[in-house]
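Entry 14. Structure prediction run on the chain below.
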Amino acid sequence: MGSMSNPPSELRIRQAVRALIITPETQVLLVRFEFPTGTRWALPGGGLDPGEDHVAALRRELVEEVGLHHADIGPHIWTREHQIPFINGQWDGQREHIHLVEVPSTFAPQPTWDWPTLNAEYVFELRWWNITEIALASGTAFAPARLLQHIQNIVEQGIPTHPIDVEV
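Output returned:
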């Protein structure tokens, strides 16, 4: 009998959750990640801890990363899967559920984690962006890459009835 080759090992995909935090004036809160491969402006959030569901993880992440307590977690609007080896070697990629989180324009982000802890997670800045700033930020890398179009779709067409794959 011939030798059987081992089936390819499955990709280790980390389950994660993020929030499109948006004000009535369409200001969007983004996080500046500094990776060895470059800077990315992305939505706040992170990986699920063992036993957490997406909403519980997002509540925890929003407190830690932006200081948003008792967030009104809206619908799961987008899904994003990014296959890239993690720096720590633990994962081969990440699958994200992205929820809409509406906040008043008076909300001021104040992480409960200190900056050395956030920096260890590659987080270096929190900043409000409006659609025009995102549109004019040529050379700036956003995650998802087509963030502007996806936000404009929500503004123009409303909240999607089922999650949209926003790609990488």
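DSSP finds four helices and nine strands in the chain.
Filed with the rest of this week's runs.
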